[in-house]
């Protein structure tokens, strides 16, 4: 996993979306993180210092994983840039065919009822 600055992360995320336009997927996860170990967190909390939490963003296309950390100051700018990237690549979204569960379960019930021999 590569921890990038905000702008290189957005550029790399754009290239990931471009590469996966025809085939593939990109997964993006957001998580609250302080980027400190549990021991460091305990020391800070015991001394009365506040812990600054950041947003850890990870993106992967199954071949490459990138990540960045966004603070409260840059969060609005990141959200705007991320929304722009998503809007630009909306055409690459593919609609999955959904199986109708009711129809499949009804068909299975009919199948099992006709295949069972009747009791005398």
Class inferred from helices and paired strands: alpha+beta
What is CATH's topology name? Signal recognition particle alu RNA binding heterodimer, srp9/1
Low-confidence stretches: none
Strand order of the largest sheet: 1-4-3-2
What is the beta-strand fraction? 15-25%
* C-alpha geometry: extended
CATH superfamily: Signal recognition particle alu RNA binding heterodimer, srp9/1
CATH class: Alpha Beta
Number of strands: 4
Mean pLDDT over the residues: 82
> Tell me about the biggest sheet?
4 strands, mixed
CATH architecture: 2-Layer Sandwich
Order of helices and strands: EHEHEEHH
Distance between the termini: 67 Å
Radius of gyration of CA atoms, rounded to a whole number:
24 Å
Multimeric organization: single chain
Helix content: 40-55%
Number of helices: 4
Counted up, domains total: 1
Characterize the structure shown:
44% of the residues lie in helices and 19% in strands. It has 120 residues and is of the alpha+beta class. The chain has one domain: Signal recognition particle alu RNA binding heterodimer, srp9/1 (2-Layer Sandwich), CATH 3.30.720. Strands 1-4-3-2 form a 4-stranded mixed sheet, with helices on one face. Helix 1 packs parallel to helix 3. The longest helix is centred in the last third of the chain and has 15 residues. The termini are far apart. Keywords: Cytoplasm, Ribonucleoprotein, RNA-binding, Signal recognition particle. Its main location: cytoplasm. It is found in: Cytoplasm. GO terms for molecular function: 7S RNA binding; endoplasmic reticulum signal peptide binding.
